[in-house]
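Tokens for UDP-glucose 6-dehydrogenase. Go.
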Amino acid sequence: MKNITIVGTGHVGLVTGVTLAEIGHQVVCYDINENDIALMKAGISPFYEPELTDLLKKNLNKGQLFFTGDPKLALVDAEIIYIAVGTPTAENGSVDLSYIKEAAKTIAENITKQEVIVVTKSTVPVGTNKLIQQVIVTNLTNEVNVNIVSNPEFLREGSAIYDTFSADRIVIGSDCEKAASIIEEIHRPFGITIFITDLLSAEMIKYSSNAFLATKISFINEIANLCEKVGANIEEVAHGMGLDFRIGTQFLKAGIGFGGSCFPKDTRGLIQQATEAGQSLEILEAVIKVNKQQKYSLMNKAKQRFGNLKDKKIAILGLAFKPNTNDVRESIAIDIASELTMQGALVTAYDPLALEEAKQILGEKIQYALSIEEAITNTDMVFIATDWDEFKDFPLEKYEMLMKHPIIFDGKNSYSLDEISEYNIEYYSVGRPFLNKSNFYNLK
Ligand code: UDX
């Protein structure tokens, strides 16, 4: 068992801390945000993540997990330190490393053990771990031998705990064999394949994995648009493609594009790194371009259908960037809501978890509803922008009963065409045939 300290208790840091405690390590989580620390000390997670609160409480009670806002206390006995602070996009499009540098400095000033391993969990551009080592070495106040390991995370929000215990691989990168094998030992109880590589390659694996997954999404979205033109069904196409193991079924779900705190930022970040290295990444440039266009594909269908959207009453179902989270960072739903109001539409939105978060961005521009029913009542059309189960389970007859005329623009293919065809609903989805058993089509 090792004394582990986590620096930065955002999504990645808290999940890492809680799960390392769960497999038996002694973990201290440190953050400069005293409010969050107070919440976590009381067993409350500052953000929503399924299963997290139970594990947090359990390990707090067992004495495996501590929280502090005091860097001295957090780092004095630390043998292994995970850096999990944010790496936002800077104004010039590059990756802002100021939190990383600050964390490295804090670590340097407070560590006292003879041997310390610093593990980077944050997504950082290639070469950053070397910079971290430099910052630590130049700011050390005690004589400490510091080794650096890159251990990128591949967790998806909304299933981060599940992913930690069932990931396909754990990547450990280091130029120090001993440090890599100590970190390998720490992760062994997860029972997951561990791949050990050099520092720079580990950093690259993280970015290229996210870029590749984003590429799959933009690719399938373009094929979905083509399916609409030629009359094929993207779900059949994606399924048939995915049966080939070389392609795989995952991340071939067509929709309104990718959002969230990782894919948009990491694709931009990788392009910036390539530019700095004197290379262009043409495929990735196209991935981002397609994603931007896809964002407004639903709205374009609505505009085509109605002529213009001025004064139309529109309900948006879903504001979080994906289900099972209250995260609205780079959420496509938020951009759609914003654009619809610019077109003069009167928007009411509902989300099971992210209403407060959305309000902070959209403010008074739209109305907020506390249920699907409230959101859709008396509306001209519904946009579905997040694939929450609550929307999939919603009885379709209620659209018929509550809307002026049931017209749905579904950006997440939430309903099967078979079930929709049993109702008088005019239904537009992504990459699938348009369904209209109703006689609303002449409505403008
Ligand atoms: C992602 C990566 O999956 C994870 O490995 C990495 O560590 C962090 O970034 P996350 O952003 O939490 O995780 O969500 P993810 O489930 O990957 O979805 C990202 C976006 O892609 C969402 O907007 C989602 O709706 C969209 N998406 C995903 C699709 O449009 N189609 C798909 O098939 C899959």
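Residues 199-230 form the longest helix (32 residues).
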